[in-house]
Amino acid sequence: MLATLAATAFGVPGCQEPEGVTKPPPETVPTVVPTTPPTTTTTLGPRLLSDDELLTRISMDLRGVRPTVEELDRYAGDPEVLDELVDEFLHDERFLRHLEDLWSELFLIRIGDYFIDPAAYEGVGIPKSELMTNVSEEPLRMLSYLADNDLPYSEYVLGNWTVVPPLLAAIWPVDFPEGATGWTKASYNDDRPGVGVLSTNGTWWFKGSMINNRNRGRANYVSRIFLCDDYLEREVPFVPTDALDSEAALGDAINTNPGCTSCHATLDPLASHFYGWFWDPAEKFVPDMIAYYHTEREFLWRELTGTPPGYFGKPTGGLVNLGTFVSEDPRYAKCFVKNAWELTTRTDADTVEVDLSGIDQTFADSNMNIREVFRSIVMSPEYQGYDERFHRKKVAPELLSSMMEDLTGYAWTLRGDDLVNTRTGYALLAGAADGDYVTVAAPTSTVTSLLVTERLAESSARFVARHDADEPERILFDDDLTFTETTTGPGADKIREQLQHLYLRMYAKRVASDDPELEELVGLWTEVHGVTGDVVLTWSVVLSAMLRDPDLVMY
Amino acid sequence: MFTRRQMLVGGAALGAAGLTAPRVGRAAEVAPTDRKFIFVFARGGWDTTKVFAPVFSSAVARDGSEVEASYGNLRLVGSDRRPLTDVFFQANHHRLTVLDGILIRSINHPICRNLWLTNSPNATQPDWPALIGYAAADRYVVPHMIVEGYSMAGDLAAFTAVSGQAGQLEGLLGTRWATNSDDPRLPFSPDTEEMVDLWLASRAARKDAQATTDVERRLTAAFDESASRLHEFKVASSDLALSGSSDFGTQILQATEFLSNGISRCVTLTLPMVWDTHMDNSSQSGNYEEMFTLLMGLNGALAHAPGTTGTTLADETVVVVFSEMGRTPFLNSSLGKDHWMYTSMMLWGPGVRGDIQVGAYDDTLNGRSLDLQSGEPTDAGVPLTPDVIGSTLLTLAGIDPGSILGSDNTLRAVLA
Fold this sequence. Notes:
The complex is a heterodimer of chains A (555) and B (416).
Chain A: E1 8-10, E2 13-14, E3 27-29, H1 51-63, H2 69-75, H3 79-90, H4 93-107, H5 128-135, H6 138-148, E4 162-164, H7 166-169, E5 174-175, E6 184-188, H8 201-206, H9 216-227, E7 234-235, H10 247-256, H11 258-271, H12 287-290, H13 301-304, E8 310-311, E9 314-315, H14 319-328, H15 330-345, H16 357-365, H17 370-378, H18 382-386, H19 397-408, E10 413-414, E11 417-418, H20 427-430, H21 447-470, H22 492-507, H23 516-532, H24 535-547, H25 550-553
Helix pairs in contact in A: 1-3, 4-6, 4-15, 9-11, 10-11, 16-17, 19-21, 21-24, 22-23, 23-24
Chain B: H1 4-19, H2 24-27, E1 36-41, E2 66-71, E3 74-79, H3 83-92, E4 96-103, H4 109-118, H5 128-135, E5 144-146, E6 160-162, H6 168-173, H7 176-179, H8 190-210, H9 214-237, H10 248-260, E7 266-270, H11 283-304, H12 313-316, E8 317-322, E9 326-327, E10 339-340, E11 342-348, E12 356-358, H13 386-396, H14 401-405
Parallel strand pairs in B: 1-7, 1-8, 4-12, 5-6, 5-7
Antiparallel strand pairs in B: 2-3, 4-11, 8-11, 9-10
C-alpha cells in the first residue's frame, strides 16, 4: 500500500525561472504514494454512489450534516426532487456556516497564530479567547453575508462594509446600527479605504508583518487566497551571489538578481498596499494602535522598499483601487471556483486534472453568485460519483463536529469553543492544518484523528442515549424504543429495528433485519449488555461504536 | 528563564555531561535498523557565526568576546559570555559531528523547513523522521511522534502522531478529556472500550477488503492501519508517564517515554527560543547558552533512560539538532540579522563519527563544496544540500537512500 514509488525531479524553490537562466540539474525527491488520487484523467463511468449515498454527500458538502430519513425517502432517485433538495440545502443557514468553515481553511484564521497580541483588550475586560473567537470570524462572515444575500463575489474586495458582532463594534472604529444584535453589517469609519475583506482588522490582525518582511507575507496571503497563486510554491533558480555583504546589497539583489526579481517584481508592489496596518512590535499590545487604520503610514513603502503600490505591472494608486484590480483579474473568479471545488472534493485540482470551465462559466453567468458555484459543483457528474477519482473522502474536522452535533445534539466545547476545531483543543490531532506546524491537512485517517473521533463519539453517544431515554422529544432514537428492550428478552425485535433506523439515519443505508452487519451489531449489543447490565449504557456504547465507523468517517 | 523542570533536567545533565564516558564504541554496536532518532529543531534560523562558523573575516559582524575555540578536532566560536556552551563542547565534542555550510537554497521559512526535512519545497512529501519511522513500522506503534514541531507525513500519516502543545494526547489517552468540556461525560469502562475497539477493527478490515476504487482503498487502508495502531497505542500508553506541557524539559521526558517503551522510533522536539532575530541579534548568544544547557539535559535523560536494544537510550539514539536556515553575516539597520541560505547542524549517537567537522564556510559565509567521501572542502566537490543530509540520515537508519531519493548521496565521512 505504501511502497516507495519512482522519484520525481524538481527545481529549486522560491519563484519562477526567468528566461535565460540555466536550470540547475534535476534532483530527486522521495515520493511515497501520492497524497492525491491518480492524476490521469478518467472517462466517466457508471455512478459509484447509490441514491442515498449521493444525497448524503451533497448534504454533507452543503450543510455539514447527514440527510434526514425524510429527505432520503423524499429523494428516492428522482432528479427533480434532487434539484429541490439542493436548492433547500443552499438556502439552509447551515450552508452559510459550512461556507465559513471551508474558507477558514484558506484564511487559517481560526487556529493559526495572530500577529497582534490577543491579550491587548484584557485591560478593558475582554478575555483574549472571547476576542479572538469573534475576530477570526470577520472575514468569513463577510463571505457568508455575500452568499446569503446573493451579492457578487467581487463585493468581497470592493464593498465598503464589514460584518461584526456588538463585541467588536464596541472596540473597533465602526458605524454599527444602534440596538443591533448578532453579526451585523457595518462600516469602518476611520478613513480606511473600503475594499472589503482587504481592509478589515480581522484579516490584518491575523496576518501581520515584521519590518523586515515589508508586508510581503501579506501580499502572498492575498495572492494565495484570491488568485490561487502562492509565491511559496514557485520555483526559483539559486544564483550564488558572493556580493551579499550588507543589508543594502541584499535589498539591491531583490531588484536586480533574476532569481529574486522573478518574485519580488510583483510581490513587493502588492505588498506596498498594506502599510496602513504596519505596526511596530511594541504596538501589537496597544488597542488604540491596532484598532485603527493609519493613513499616515500608507507611504512607508517609500523608505522601506521604494516600490510604489502596483498590481502585476500596473500602478494602482494605492489600496483604494486594489479591490478593483483584484476583482477584475480573471484569476480572481477562477480561484474562487478552484477553491470551492478543492475544498468540497478534497482533491487538488492541479494534480487531479479536472475541467472546471463549466463551473467557471456558471459563476460568470450568475454575476459571481456563490450559491450557484456550489450548486454547479454538486450537480457535476464528477462530483456525483461518475468519476472514480472523487469516489470517497474523509470527513474533515469541522464536518466531524457539525455532523456529530446534528446527529446527537451534543456539542463538544470548552468555554464555548469547539474542541475539535481549535488549536488549544484537538484540531491538529484531528488532522487539521494550522498553517504553521502543519501546512497540509491529513488526507487520510490517522491514529490521533481516530482518537479524537472516539472521544467525541463517546461523549455524544452518552449524551443522546441519556437524553432520548429521558425526554419525550427524541434527537436520534426512534420513538418506538422504550429503552427497556434487550436482545435476549422481550422486545428483541425492537433492538433490531432500532439498529436499522440508526443505519439509515447515520449511514444512509437501508439494511434488512437479517443483514450480517446488523447481526454483528446485535452481537456487540448483547456482549456489552452482558457486562454493563444497563440498557441505556449499552445503547451508549453501541452507538459510540457506530459513530466511529468507517461509513461515518468517510463519505 | 528556565522552568523548574528544565532546571532539574538540565542540572542532572550537567553532571552527566562531565561524567559520562565516550560511548562511540558501544553505541556503534546497535544495528542501524535498531537505531532511534530524536530531531531537535531550532525554529526560526540560527546565527551560525555565533558557534558553528569560525569565520573571522571583515564580512562577519561579531561582538568583541568571540574567539576561535577548539574542542578536539572541532573548530568553533567561543565566548566567555557563553560558558555553558563551552561546557557542552568540552564534554561532548568526542561524539559530535558538526556539519557546516549546508546550502538550503531558499531564505523563506516554510520552504527552508520543507527542504531541510524532505528535500522538496512541497509539504506533502513525508519528512525524514516519517520515513525513518515508517521503515520500522512493524515494530513501533507510532513510528514518528511529534512531541512538538512540524509534521509532514504525506501518505505516511497513519504512522505519525502529534501530541499537542498542551497535553492533548495525554488527555485523550487518559480520562482528562472527559472532564475537559463544557458538558462532561463519563468515559466508558476499559472492558467496554475494548469490545468496541475489537468490533471496529473487524469493521475496518472488512471495509478495507471491500474497497472498489483506488481512492477508497487508500482511505480504508489508512483507517484500518490507524485503528489498529490506536488500539495498540491505548494499551501501551497505560505504562507511559506523559504530562501536558510544551516546555523543553517536558518534551524530553515525553521523548524518553516514547522511545524507552518502544512506542516510537523517531521523536521530534522543538527548542523554545526565538531564533528569528531580525531585530537585536544579540539574543542569539543567550539562545545558544540555553540550547546547549537543554541539550545537556537531553543527553542526561538519554543516558539514564533504559533502551530497548541497548543499555540506555544514549546507546541507541541518534540526536539531530538543526535549524532551517542561517542568518546573514552582517547586521541590518535594526541590529538584527536577516535570513541566510547556508546553515549548520549537529548530530551524535550510534553510528555517528565523533569529533569531526564536515563542510565549511568561506570568508563571506557562503558554504563551500565538499567531497562526499572524505568530507573535505574542495572546489571540485558538491554542495552540502538537503538530499545529502537526507541520504546520510537514512543510511544511519539502515535504509537505502536510493530507494527513496533515487540516488545515494550519503556523507560517508560522518559514519562511524
